[in-house]
Amino acid sequence: MRRFYLDYNASTPVHYTIINSILYTMNEAFANPSSQHTSGNKSAEIIKVSRQAVANFMQVDLSGIIFTSGATEAINLAIYSVLFHEKFHNTNNVYDNNGKHDKPRTLLYSSVEHKCVINALVHWNTVLQLNYTIVEIPVDNNGQVVIEILQQELPNAALLCVMAVNNETGIITDLEIIKDSIHIYNPDLPWLVDSVQAIGKVDIDFNKLGISYAAFSGHKIYAPKGCGVLYVKPGSLLYPIFTGEQENQYRAGTENVPAIYGFRLAVDLLQNNKTLYNDIAKYRDMIISELTHIFPNIHINNQQLAVSTVINFSVPGFFSKELIDIFAIFGIDVASGSACGSLNSESYVLKAMGFDKWIAEGAIRMSFSLFTTHDETVQLCQRIKSIALGLSKYKTINKHDVRYHYLTNNLNVIRFNYNGSNSWIIVNAGNCVIIDPVYESIIKLKNYILNNSLKGIAILDTHGHADHQSCAHMLRDLLAVNLNVDQLGWPIINTNSEHLSRIAINNKPYDALMLDTNTALIKILTPGHTDDSRTFIIGSINNCSLNSALFMFSGDNILINGLGRTNFVTSSATQLYESINHLSSFISDNCMICPAHDYNHSFATTFIAERTANLLMQHIHNKELAVFLHKKQEIDALLNDSDSHMEIIKCGVVATDNYAHNIISIKEVQDIIRHQQYLFIDVRDSIVHNNDDTINNNLIKTNPAYNILNVPYTHMVNFMSYCLHNISVDTDLLFTCNSGAASLYAAQAFARLGFKHSKSISIAQLVEAIC
Ligand code: PLP
Fold this sequence. Notes:
- Helix content is 36%, strand content 20%.
- The relative contact order is 0.07.
- It is built from 26 helices and 31 strands.
């Protein structure tokens, strides 16, 4: 399958014409440009003509072009120069005994700058011990610096850093208005314009604008990595970070001649192909139209004045990481705004522009090459169309297909986690109950329920949450679920609900909702974390009595590796002790405990796992009330503390597990395959799993016995329940995903439950081990 690379803002391939020419310099002009012989002169000459060509292209003075390793270095060199001067040569700088300035001095940057700018400001301000205040100037909804605030800040400023074109959105900054403000409020102020994403795309008149410094990068313009440029206006300050003879003593180190030559060729390329940008604007529209087809509620995030090579968009219900994985499996490489460490990391650029959180968390950036053709765009649109087909399958991931999701008795427990907060959907026979819905997950919950044509019976909370907003009432409205309920969503007893019932546990009756004739959700009042805390049990029913409990929704009373805090005014540690004691009298060791939080990607727990990992649970089990109360108080006191071994959160204190041995090598996988007792589990989303040619062609076709189960994160707790009831703890469980990182969490979570051989490996390594 042909891949479509749409991440040109991150890095461009080296243009084929440039590759050929650079090869020439590598062969023929390899000598050190500082050497005095003919070969050295040849290299020096290449640098000389390159400098001239770059200066001509930018229409600036030749002496202002400094070759660096890239834009990050260029930006650092500019910032260092200004700050070095402030520290050692600014005679107006007077410090008091505490190292504070008599006059406040500031370093200004706009809130959408590339991270290397703020990093450099902080770094050199610290290293040089300047202690200037670093001030972020906000941008408005259009991504433009708020000019009134800039004007207020300008008089005290020692430096201003702005960018010409934003790397995430392609939005073009109005440099003219910034220049005018500088002119009025601080005419001598040095200003740095990060021009990395602008070069070749927008015309900047460096002389007219009076820009002091501008940074450029070769690998964004079809030249090799390892070469950038700092433009320095004649007369602007410049001090070397490291010393030596090269670049007029401003940038020491033997020059990267091939890359410098590549940069020069790249500016020629930009110069000769300027008109191509008009075509790109048409292609951009074609792609937006195709995207709108598959995502009718798409939000385009860069409709402002932006370069035509970027589309930035979000789709309700999807995090960036999820969309990146979906596009990738269909052979399209796109980027998110921000580095995607966690599932819901957000774009600071879109956040700074005032977009809603879901937009910032779901942003996708498609960035195109100047050399994109009409044919390629048509093919790309076809490929985007094929995602639509995949997505329609994605909608039905709830299909009662045991091979994929390991449903137990038609009962399906789905979990959406947002920043450690769980929202649960219990699905049974076309009905569903939602427990502890978190506001940020509302679109996912709604989509899941509507796409699977489920009927909502109840939307419940385990308690009044202190740390986050429940969206139960909103979901009730959206899904038209019974509105005659108490404050935590339980239907009022007199309501004419066919599902309400009474179920006995140890001969005591409890309120319940029947999910089908043999399955009930039972409400148990369990004060502790708060006085209104409830636990919901899902279990099989026999003669109106609980037969066995399969899932228990513990709210914040029982967390994973910890207990909910009991130092709210409405909390009681003694009641928590009693509530847990009561529950443990009828909950078996393989009932899944599903809390309202999961801070460590452990999914769910069991009483036995908790008693192993959690001292407080041991005290409850051993009926040691006094010790329990004493320890609990001590631990709750940590909530204001920061201890490196404990994760401090609002609802309780949880310890972090440390499983060092859950990553498996290729050799160990090959050993596992020789014994028969193993399961391969792909934890990626179904759409990614189903469309992954690596798995379908390589693994399954090689040997159908290597059939890989697909258990996405949302379905993991079902699978845990299945495994605890049906397979031996000696079974080899091999979890996999693209990088092996998400699957490592799953492997660790199963190890926590007692599975002795629960391991993780990346898809690529798994294929290598098997094929
Ligand atoms: N500034 C902007 C706007 C960028 O997009 C980048 C690269 O991502 C940089 C600076 C850093 O460039 P380099 O990779 O050459 O250090």
